[in-house]
Design goal:
Blueprint (H helix, E strand, L loop, with lengths): L2 H25 L7 H57 L4 H17 L3 H5 L8 H13 L6 H27 L6 H21 L4 H24 L12 H9 L4
Length: 254
């Protein structure tokens, strides 16, 4: 589900909860909304509000951590790609085919995106990314080192290419994690209860209604940000592919 859709649905839920509170207020007897009753309602909603704030804070921290980790992974992968290319260049012209395969792999990654769905599946004549990196490794294994230096460079190149393959499979395994939906559902229920009590206590005038709508929009915006940052390779707030763009400019140089 798209982040904008999630934010829009939550805004609709909170607005609906506020409207329900206003309608219930109009039908309740006056003694149900006297000063003592409102004090009890405020105390109860304070508990739910505190729990909601804690839950939302945990979601924001988790999403920010996922985004930061993805950014580090992107930079690390770009650095390893450059390192692999330089190690193969030092080996000699025997690695020209492997270096070309590596460049094609990065060009494909930039054109198809940095998600598990686009990198792990074949598309027409284009192989999945794991098959591309395996082709690079196969070329490296087929080399016949002439001396200890080339043997060392071959071992190093295989080690770095193995790290790139590991990064790919980590992306595939973690690509569908996203938001903890059960946690988010409970949070939305708490927030809806809060906004229903706001409507229950608020006089139905344009100023109050405008403030409640702005508050609902603010909460929905916060959850939109959480949802978008929890999927750092897609959406409006995504990890920049600038490290890969920089890497591809330097690949293949002598």
């Amino acid at each position: 589900m798209g982040s904008l859709l999630v934010g829009g649905l939550i805004f609709a839920f909170l607005s609906m909860a506020t409207s329900i509170g206003l309608m219930v207020r109009a039908r309740l007897p006056n003694h149900h909304l006297n000063a003592e009753s409102k004090d009890v309602i405020r105390l109860a909603t304070a508990v739910v509000g505190t729990l909601s704030a804690l839950a939302l804070g945990l979601l924001i921290a988790s999403a920010k951590s996922s985004y930061d980790n993805a950014e580090v992974e992107m930079r690390t992968a770009a650095a390893r790609i450059l390192l692999l290319d330089r190690v193969m260049a030092q080996y000699g012209p025997e690695t020209d085919n492997a270096r070309q395969l590596l460049r094609e792999l990065i060009e494909k990654r930039l054109s198809r995106g940095w998600t598990a769905e686009t990198t792990d599946e074949a598309s027409g004549k284009a192989l999945g990314e794991y098959q591309d990196i395996e082709a690079v490794q196969a070329d490296l294994r087929s080399l016949a080192p002439r001396d200890a230096v080339q043997h060392s460079l071959q071992a190093r190149a295989l080690e770095v290419s193995g790290m790139l393959a590991e990064t790919h499979w980590l992306l595939v395994e973690s690509g569908k994690e996203g938001l903890p939906w059960a946690f988010l559902t409970v949070l939305v229920c708490w927030l809806s209860l809060l906004f229903a009590t706001f409507g229950l206590q608020a006089p139905a005038n344009p100023t109050v209604l405008s403030i409640l709508l702005v508050c609902a929009l603010s909460v929905a915006g916060a959850i939109f940000l959480v949802s978008d940052m929890a999927n750092p390779y897609v959406g409006l707030i995504r990890v920049s592919d600038a490290p890969l763009q920089f890497a591809i400019e330097r690949l293949g140089k002598p």
